[in-house]
Specification:
- The structure is a homodimer.
- The first copy, chain A, is α/β, with parallel strands linked by helices.
- The first copy, chain A, has a single domain, classed as Alpha-Beta Barrel (TIM Barrel), CATH 3.20.20.70.
- Chain A is about 40% helix and about 15% strand.
- Chain A contains 13 helices and eight strands.
- Chain A has an eight-stranded parallel β-barrel, surrounded by seven helices.
- Chain A is globular.
- Chains A and B meet through helix 5, helix 8, helix 9, helix 10 and helix 13 of A and helix 5, helix 8, helix 9, helix 10 and helix 13 of B.
């Protein structure tokens, strides 16, 4: 492990999309907007703010249009929308999303379970979205596509690494600049991460590659470390560690943003995020979603938040 | 990070000592014995089975003698006892502990808070214990000493690395073979871990050095990875992630044994531990301690524990 370099690590905040999408307690549109505006005030430059999917499929995010129209657009912040299909892309463009994030699983079974179509049909839909964006004159919107279950599938198990690399290359050949490798149900391990990141970086620059880890089996930050060490510089994370996967019941969710930022702060890796503000924002989550969240740093505080010395110690 | 080597990683199980010591619900002696015997059946070769401290200080472990006398000694397993003072050492020897683990904090304030004495007095007490063991003919007991708060103190903050190295050297010069560096309240980060482990390995062989991490700020397994990469091979961990520190309220505990073993299994690093048995044992913990525990793998299952494919998928 090379601990000399201290290149910046870019955190894309996904609490308002991947975090909230499985919550059963309805979060008011105004509260979603306040969360996103709170995140941009912490210093994030990329926020996945919502998704444009069928309200039947993900009722928790059915107000994507109102959310995108309500947020205070902060200069320099890219507001991303998840759009699996062309219909969602049209809505996202109408709502002035800065970037569209398309998603397909490397696993056929997971894609059928999640998107209700084959990978081939998903890819054909991506082509439609690329053509839609290309057809808009002066469109400033950028494109990213996610390879879900890139490190393992809860139905199929291991995923062939060649398949993940070839999907990433196919995305690029379609004209999609950004690539995300997603460990959708937390099956990745650091050795696998280092290997796959190295392979994908032969085809995609570090500036265009995002890693999306879940902490389902407690390995989230270890995987970030391995990916960073292998050259990755962009990571998804969700405030409080919100999120999860309906096909992996009982598991914890996305890697926790404040735990990741704390790790970077302690290691001297710049993120541009204000950890103290972030912790304060995270502490509002339990009231918002109606349950405790899995993040640690919001409970334990930063290292520099020292505890008072017990009185009896002074007499020893 | 060098991901080619796959040298074995030795896990010392500390659930029955560091895990149980802060539990408020009384765990019956027979249940403690069953837990320890369950652990030795999973393949652990080192188990910190209990402590011999004042029953007023740690009432949860007041039955250390009965526990040591009740366990089924499995051949090849070293049963360790935590003994901060000479009186405890006498009790541990009478109970046939295989190894004594002494403990002092690198931080004067933490040592006064935890041990109610200065570091100088703690070290003098260690000398008494070394002489006690030396004075017993044919004594087969081995000695280990822990540097607590080696990576940070909740009262003092940063700990000077030179001080940690010099304490480790002082332990060795007293005739104590084993050294543990403990991140008592989870303040370590991977960069610091790599640096300090490298420095201490100049004075202590990897076979004699143990790392003890807490997951207080979510960095436990990332720190294991950094330490392993720097040459460390022995790690403490507690079933279910039990434990914690009274001076770091709200925080989670020791790194979770089954999460660590799962990481090693997935990375191809041998531990000699049966993960499936271990998960089954961990799932008995909530009933034993009266609350949910923080470990992830016992909730999510192993990667190879696949989920059934939803019926609707077959029609797509």
């Amino acid at each position: 492990m090379n601990f000399e370099y201290k290149e910046p690590l870019l955190v894309q905040e996904v609490a308002s999309r991947d975090g909230l999408q499985i919550e059963t307690q309805w979060v008011e549109t105004a509260d979603k907007i306040a969360l996103i505006d709170g995140l941009s005030a912490c210093g994030f430059t990329r926020i996945e703010a919502g998704s444009f999917v069928s309200p039947k499929a993900i009722p928790a995010l059915r107000d994507g249009d109102a959310v995108f129209n309500g947020i205070a657009r902060r200069e320099g912040v890219i507001y991303v929308a998840l759009v699996p299909k062309v219909k969602g892309a049209e809505r996202a463009l109408a709502a002035n999303a800065d970037e569209l994030n398309l998603v397909m699983s490397a696993s056929q079974t997971h894609n059928r379970a999640n998107m209700r179509m084959s990978c081939e049909l998903s890819l054909a839909g991506f082509g439609d979205i690329v053509r839609l964006v290309d057809g808009i004159q002066h469109a400033k919107v950028s494109l990213n596509a996610t390879v879900a279950t890139a490190f393992g599938c809860p139905f199929e198990g291991r995923i062939d690494e060649d398949r993940v690399v070839s999907i990433a290359r196919a995305y690029r050949e379609m004209g999609i600049a950004g690539i995300t490798l997603a460990d959708t149900t937390g099956m990745a391990n650091p050795r696998q991460v280092a290997r796959l990141v190295s392979r994908v970086l032969e085809h995609v620059s570090a500036a265009d590659l995002t890693l999306h880890f879940h902490n389902t089996r407690g390995l989230g930050l270890a995987n970030v470390l391995a990916a960073y060490d292998a050259g990755a510089r962009r990571f998804d994370a969700a405030l409080g560690g919100l999120g999860g996967c309906p096909f992996a019941p009982g598991a914890s969710g996305n890697i926790c943003t404040e735990d990741l930022v704390n790790m970077c702060d302690e290691m001297g890796i710049p993120t541009g995020v204000d950890l103290q503000k972030l912790i304060a924002l995270s502490r509002t989550l339990p009231a918002l979603v109606g349950h405790e969240v899995s993040g640690q740093v919001a409970k334990a505080g930063r290292n520099c938040d020292l505890h008072p010395v017990p009185e009896y110690v002074l007499t020893i």
